[in-house]
Fold this sequence. Notes:
Elements: E1 2-4, H1 11-24, E2 29-32, E3 35-37, E4 41-43, E5 49-51, H2 52-61, E6 72-76, E7 81-86, E8 89-95, H3 96-119, E9 123-126, H4 145-151, E10 155-160, H5 166-176, H6 179-182, E11 185-193, H7 201-211, E12 214-220, E13 245-250, E14 255-256, H8 262-265, E15 270-275, E16 287-290, E17 292-293, H9 296-305, H10 308-317, E18 321-325, H11 327-332, E19 335-338, E20 347-350, E21 358-374, E22 380-392, E23 401-403, E24 408-409, E25 411-412, E26 418-421, E27 423-424, H12 430-439, H13 449-467, H14 470-476
Parallel strand pairs: 1-10, 2-9, 3-6, 10-11, 11-12, 13-15, 13-16, 16-18, 18-26, 19-21
Antiparallel strand pairs: 4-5, 6-7, 7-8, 14-17, 19-20, 21-22, 21-23, 22-27, 23-24, 25-26
Helix pairs in contact: 1-2, 1-13, 5-7
Amino acid sequence: MIQGTGSDVGKSLIVAGLARLYARRGLRVRPFKPQNMSNNAAVTADGGEIGRAQALQARAAGVAPSVHMNPVLLKPQSEIGSQVVVQGRMVGTARAREYQDWKPRLLAAVVESFGRLRAESDLVLVEGAGSASEVNLRRGDIANMGFARATGTPVILLGDIDRGGVIASLVGTKAVIDPEDAAMVRGFLVNRFRGDPALFADGMELIAARTGWESLGLIPHFPEAARLPAEDVLGLKGAERPGGKVVAVPVLPRIANFDDLDPLRAEPGVSVVLVEPGRPIPAGADLVLLPGSKTTIPDLAFLRAQGWDVDILAHRRRGGRVLGLCGGYQMLGTSLSDPHGIEGPPGTVAGLGLLDVATVLTPEKRLAAARGVSLPDETPFTGYEMHVGETAGPDAARPLVRLADGRPDGAVSADGLVCGTYVHGLFADEGQRALWLSRLGAAPGPEAYEAVIERVLDRLADHLAAHVDADRLLALAG
């Protein structure tokens, strides 16, 4: 189990790299994260959902994603509350304090899923959540030491030297956690080192001496990690490139499935501009893309509070293109109704009015792989659906896509400049991305997006093989 001294120290990346490394050795590898918190989810073949990071790790291991790879997924709906997904299915919502009481009940599902993966594999690589030193949350823990102790899983602690204070964070973790928890730790890794490794040799020895844990590797910074799908929207920031066609994306508080943006970010002829709160949408944007949202109505209110609705309408009057994906599609319509109070008090709000469609939010959630063709060009696509709500209206008579089962999906304005769809993953499809780039007056880059992901995963595995004692890690596995 890879636990971290804090959030965003590289746990997801290290697990993905190790999964590819050991899978290339011929081992049957499975990734596992007991509890994840993310609105960036992936659909599994059996119609469930898991964190997007675990789907990438499954890909690195060469296996299909399973709901058992992330048995508890928390999807934030507010600052203090989240939707709770257990083994791929939504079971309710809970505030942060309430969720602490849920944890003991959820441990059974976590242990069951872990047992399934362990039975079908040679090696399960477990990713912890947040920080191993959050002793205030230790009671009932299912994500870090609570899981490790319940299953007898040995732990490797990962620190991030790039953020500073890595000696204190590793030694401090040993100091604050329970001695029985500390006994689960077999060794440590230090991630994201820059410069001459010899300069930190004394630091590695000091950590080992102060903690009694084995030093298993000093991992240099791996810049190509930026080309892999980010688990958190923060991972997308700072990735804008000058020049090229501008795709402007308002950053909503509950932005979801933002991996839709990754293939566009990889295109050399495109600059994906994440529009932060307090900034206007660029007047010269070639496309305004409204992404998915975990809570569409509150995010639409936020969009209006930022004045982005005015910017989008001005962009439209100038003849600009607008695309809405899932929740963004719902926002483009004339109205959104929530009669069941799914996102808050029951009621109806006005949409942006750029498409003549209306949405009614429904309790049932659609989770499914999707394939079909876009219209009217009949270009094939593959993707997935993950949404609540039904959308209909005059502009839906001009659907954006037709699914393989014959269902139309989405809507297009009469002039073709505004459109929306419930299908995620369109831009990951080479044909669809080329089609959209041509509409913007751009050409696709020389390398297919999926080939880039595979190449980076292989290079990540090579990187870890060169800097981590992979044989010793395997020997330490329970």
